[in-house]
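Lab meeting, action items carried over

1. Structure of the two-component assembly. Owner: GW. Status: complete.
Input record:
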Amino acid sequence: MNIKELRKKASQDVERIKNVEELKRVYQEYLGRKGKILLFFNELKHYSLDERKEQGRQINKFKSWLEEVLDKKEKILKEKVYRRRIQKEKLDITQPASKTTLGHLHPLTKVTYQIEDIFQSLGFSIIQGPEIEDEYYNFDALNIPKDHPARDQWDTFWLKDGKHLLRTHTSPVQIRYMEKHNPPFRVIVPGRCFRHEATDASHDVQFKQLEGLMVGKDISVANFKAVIQQFCSSFFGPQIQMRMRPSYFPFTEPSFEIDLRLKGKKWTEVLGAGMVHPEIFKAAGYQPGEWQGFAFGMGIDRLAMLKYHVDDIRLFYNPDLRFIEQF
Amino acid sequence: MKFSFSWLQSFFDQKLPAPKVLAELLTQKAFETEAVNSKVLEVDILPNRAPDCLSYQGLAREIGAALGLRPKTLDLHVPRNKTSLKTAKVIEVEVKKPQDCQRYSVRLIEGIKIQESPSWIKQRLEESGLRPINNVVDLANYVMLETGQPLHVFDIDKIEGNKLIVRQAKANEKITTLDDKTYSLNKSALVIADLHNSLAIAGVKGGKKAEITKATKSILVEAANFSRASVRGLWKKMGLRTDASWRFENDLDLGLTKIAQNRFANLMIDLYQAEPASDIVDFYPVPSLERRVDLSLEYLEKLLGVKIKDSQVASILQSLGFKIVNRSVKKWKIVVPSWRLDISGQADLVEEVARLYDYEKIPAQASIVNLIPPVRNWSQFWGKEIRNVLIKSGFSEALSYSFISEEQRLFFYYPPENIVEVANPVSRRQRYLRPNLLINLLASLKENEKHHRQIKIFEIGHVFMQPSEHYLEKSSLAGILTSQNSQEGFYQLKGIIKHLADSLVIDDLWFDNYQATPEDFSKFMWHPSRVSEIKIGDKEIGFLGEIHPRLEDELNIPEYALAFEINLEDLTKFASEEQEYRPVSSYPVAKRDLSVIVPLATKIGKIIAKINEVGGLLVRDVDLMGIYRGDSITRGKKSITLRIYFQAQNHTLPTAEINDLQKKIIKSLQQKGWIIKD
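Predicted assembly:
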């Protein structure tokens, strides 16, 4: 058979191809490892040099012609297959979604992470402390003397030994930290705290607090305001309005409170703060007058309630998946 | 405290702003205040300001300072009466322990006619939340509200002898008070007594004995300064607290007794034409001294971060009654008014200046600090990583109470001496601190199962034990998964813990057989033959397994509950961020399947360990393909099908080498007495 005849036969074969499988077979027959084209090439050695050249050229021409034709044919065939699939394969997109298998972070954790991220970006390190405290760190060192009415602000769970208690705030960690570190520093302390009180929608026996402390040579009320404004607008958005008013805490002097509101809404108290009381620095063993700084504390439960419009604080500590899965 | 707006207005000639506006102003400059209605303000007096501001006089001073007005002073004038000399000797005061009562001032007033108070007094009292009784009692209350100094009046004709004694109560001393209640006192309380009987619980409540009645003609008025400790015990132990004792608890200006006595006498004369029959008999052994505080203006500016003009600082302090006695450039010497018991250092003065200057006017100013990045908190860091892994595995995070009940303790057989007990629990359900997280998580299953097909929850939190006299507080991680098939659930959970270990780059976490020790409470928690100890190296860090069938039954858990609890500190101690990249081998992997028939009790882990041991580095992985028990297998045996992946790091393994290795592995398994199925 010569090239001409082969080409004729090939174009007939290509013509007859109906699907991708047949196409592959034709490809093998001509272009495969034992295909007809290779056989032709093997025959070439019987020819003279000139003929060989001419024949070779023709075979190559035929080969590239066939490759091109098959390529085109394949594309058309595949396109047909796709079209058929697309016509056949339908989906009811209104069918309810499958349940995802991802779990949910607790809203208090979520809010804590958001707060921590903001303060970490402002250079605050996170520190922690124990939930069982002793009287010294929870009260005495914080300038809250025994039998002083100031202590009545903190209803306390005591343990049986009468000396230990469940911390009523995260402030003891301030003292523990300052005993071991020298200023300047910026820290925040998230943690679970306890109050001995009757529970209702806005009070529970336990809650999560976040304490902040920044101390340096000249850290001022004005600096506090800058940090807290930054925090509030990052956490609640730039529309939030902030108010600062006088308050009292035994461990800060001056003391103040921060209220927040959205335009037109009522003020909500979110944060107690003040300039660290000289007595606290004394308790931490610092030189009087050498350092100054601010401390603040906020209720994470309260912030989460504001943020997610949760109206009962007790929902946070009830492991009910119907609640948790909303976050 | 409730304040009558019209009474406050009476301190000023100028018209005060409307109650709502005044409330805003006070909130901004002094105390959180709410206008209850057009007549009454509710002012939340801060605890440190109770000594001076639980009074109209005190709040008027604050309003004056905030508005730049000067409040009127009280009329304290008492004309000297002819009879005073005659009766002055009648009264004698003895204070047994001056530290209980630093000042005791009394005055006799005669010519009393008990009647109703005029309506303006009644109105002012009512608006302040007090109930009018009669002119004398009302006036005592009126002066208390006005000055902050509690007063008490006795009917002098009912006092035996001419002496008032301030003494400790005797043990179990009984006293019947004006409201017809009888109290049994202990020694920490103080009483006022005549020669024979106690007449009043000092600073708290009057007694029935010398009560003012319609027949009262002469009264003895008491204005005293009782110690905080004497009244606080009564409140703490007996819940007994009155308007008077509340003020004593917060300490009072020693100078007030005389002011209140004179104010009372002044009004008695003015309103009721009574006759003061004596001067004040005043027990006041150690008069209080003038207090001075230095204020550095540089400190003030540095602490606030804003420069306030010297003249403004001075006028703020003066408006509050402070006197500046020495004004050097750097330091001012300041005399503290006697009523400001809260002022002891210059930080206190800075607060006075700051709040009246207005916190709102202090500009926000970013601090200039070194650019030190925050120090990483590893416990927080790993906590986040662990939560991520569990959430990706479908677990939701729960938080439960840190407390458990007596019933829960008994249920899990915790001996009371090993678990931390709260001395004053709020409810029976919260008597102890949780010794583990699972107790409360398990309790939530029943409710959750009503709404969820499969429960997957976890918690991270502190748990508490008392193994010796010291408390032990640990950070813990626990999770529960419910499943209809216990074994499936177990291996699923095991996979998750393995995955958790991988994420924390802990490569020697493994699961060991459970060995109950006598002092171990875990045996009550876990199904003894479906639990494993989680270990890192040879350190036990927790448990994983099925919850004890008894608990599943009694807690009404309809499915199997598989759980784990891990000591978080132990886990994260081994965690590492140093994940090292191991080059992926580019040489082909060869797979060979192998079925081993072993006794039912034989652990799969043992077979895999043997394969790894013999195959060495060339065995890249071994997968469990299936476990088969049934007809074709001898009773008491099971067939385990494993897939071994052979791969070398640096060359293509020739078939011959793989076959050799496979033969070696088979031989070693056979030496164990196991049968290899072809």
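2. GW to write a short summary for the group page. Key points so far: The domain at 2-67 of chain B is CATH 3.30.56.10 (Phenylalanyl-tRNA Synthetase; Chain B, domain 1). The first strand of chain B starts at residue 2 and ends at 4.
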